[in-house]
Amino acid sequence: MKLTKKMMIATAMLVTTPMALPTVATAQEFPLVAGEFSEVSGIYVKDGGVYKYAQWLATEWKKNAEFAKSQGWLNDYKIYVNAHPRDGEPNIYIMRIFSSLPDAAESERRDAAYDAWAKKTAEQQIAESGNRAEYRTVKSSMLLREYKIR
User: Which residue in 1, 35, 68, 137 has its CB near the most CB atoms, within 10 A?
Assistant: First the structure.
């Protein structure tokens, strides 16, 4: 009887040891650590509209991004040009980089602060965005999160 009990204990240990190993491994720190968010918009600019959109990016978009940076809402912003777009693919990507996503209350506070700074109503801002549709189309939008190796 003692031998059978010892065999059962040994068997149980052999069976459960491999199950314990992943638990030990997951107890270690994850090898990647979360970093900043990047919101990337893929923009298709129609033929003949590149200069007009570039002007808007260099003036209004930059002014808005600089205000957001001054408030600590953005860490950085970038513009990328797709040198070899496929048919219908975005030819410009605009990126906004930030540390965290605002909750609902913070979003409301930011909207109010932006409206006061811009001195424009939501209706005016939406109309201006619609006017850019004559030369550009938003094709995609992504929210990415950077992960760095520990």
Answer: 68
